[in-house]
Amino acid sequence: MADSNDTAPRHGLGAQLWGAVKDALIDEDPVAAARRAKLQGTRTPADKPAAPDAAPAAMSPMAQALMAQVLSKATAYTALTDKLAPLEAIVLDERTRYQAAYALIKSSRSVEQVVQAIAMQHVPALEAEAARFGAQLEDKERQEIGARSQELQTLTTHIEAAAQQVATLRADTAARIQQIEAAVARDRERQAQLTQEIDGKRHELAGVQRQFDAAAKSVAQALDAAKATVLRHLG
Predict the structure, then answer these.
(1) How would DSSP label each residue in 88-147?
(2) Radius of gyration of the CA atoms of the chain, in A
(3) pLDDT tens digit sequence for 69-114
(4) For the chain, how many structural domains are there in total?
(5) pTM flag (> 0.85)
(6) DSSP state of 6
(7) Which residues form a coiled coil (predicted)?
């Protein structure tokens, strides 16, 4: 298979990755899956030969979709993997399998070319997919979070304005209460003063009344005496 940077991708990544995101969240942990597979392997019947190499942890659906996209362009490495795939069920030993697959392409591909294809083509492809996926996430964020964020900001502004209004009203009310209390204090002081003055005036008038009563009594007595004198001398 010839190297080409123009070969069409084998699988589109967009819908696959977004579908894989949800699956990846509930997918079994690869380490746990490998451990479970290993435990199941210990229960294999004795007459069944065990694979000499431990199987790698299974990829999540997202990782599988991403790997398919990263390897979607034909390179020296994909030429090797194309030959490896049919041998996986036949040659169990990994080293033997790689050597057999490479034997099929070594006339047109060197080991150095295979390694360079991974480093110079597939790793950059992964980085490009990571950047593209990041842009897709930003689009999703704008679509699904943007409106909510705007509403949240509006509500936050309203809440802050209402809190400020409440604080202002409380300050105004406190100032008004202080004014009323000061007026009440002045009124109480005047009230006490007036009460004292009224009591003083009443006491003063009561004294005058007593003096008048005494004077009136004296005059009445004098008149009675005058009347008696007139009658005694002239009557």
Answers:
(1) TTT--SHHHHHHHHHHTTTTT--HHHHHHHIIIIIHHHHHHHHHHHHHHHHHHHHHHTHH
(2) 54
(3) 999 999 999 999 999 999 999 999 999 999 999 999 999 999 999 9
(4) 1
(5) no
(6) S
(7) 123-211
